[in-house]
């Protein structure tokens, strides 16, 4: 699995919640993963409103979702995004979406991020 970076385990993320990860150990969560049962959705931790300049989506550590867990919320300006697609539903970035990351979940629950040429040198 040389093209994969281990993030953790499925049980590290509560069902219906999201958690930030720092796969390149830069001291900030550069992506976050949302858990829906055994399904995981991963997004770059940057709002498209700011041109993916690194504006963190979390309004507090590991707080990426609204209270109901139905939408991703940008802590910087309150934009709301669809949890399934990352599409902006409300806010200053209509027609834009969060950038998805490719994840792999093993049969034993280990969670990995696919390392691509775009994220090899921590471009997000």
From TrEMBL:
InterPro entries on file: Rieske_2Fe-2S, Rieske_2Fe-2S_sf
SUPFAM superfamilies: ISP domain (SSF50022)
Keywords noted in UniProt: 2Fe-2S, Iron, Iron-sulfur, Metal-binding
Gene3D superfamilies: Rieske [2Fe-2S] iron-sulphur domain
Pfam families documented for this protein: Rieske (PF00355)
CDD domains linked: Rieske
PROSITE patterns per record: RIESKE (PS51296)
Ranges for domain Rieske: 5-94
Top-rank lineage group of the source organism: Bacteria
Claim: Nucleotide-binding is one of the keywords in the record: no
PANTHER family linked to this entry: PTHR40261, RIESKE DOMAIN-CONTAINING PROTEIN (PTHR40261:SF1)
Protein name: Rieske 2Fe-2S domain-containing protein
Species assigned in the record: Oceanobacter antarcticus
């Amino acid at each position: 699995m040389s093209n994969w970076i281990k993030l953790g385990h499925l049980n590290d993320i509560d069902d219906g919640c999201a958690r930030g990860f720092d796969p390149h150990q830069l001291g900030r969560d550069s992506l976050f993963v949302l858990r829906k049962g055994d399904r995981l959705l991963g997004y770059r931790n940057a709002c498209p409103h700011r041109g993916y300049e690194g504006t963190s989506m979390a309004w507090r550590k590991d707080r990426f979702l609204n209270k109901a867990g139905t939408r991703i919320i940008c802590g910087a300006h309150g934009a709301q995004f669809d949890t399934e697609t990352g599409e902006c539903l409300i806010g200053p970035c209509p027609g834009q979406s969060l950038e998805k990351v490719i994840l792999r979940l093993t049969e034993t629950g280990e969670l990995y991020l696919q390392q691509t040429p775009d994220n090899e040198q921590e471009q997000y």
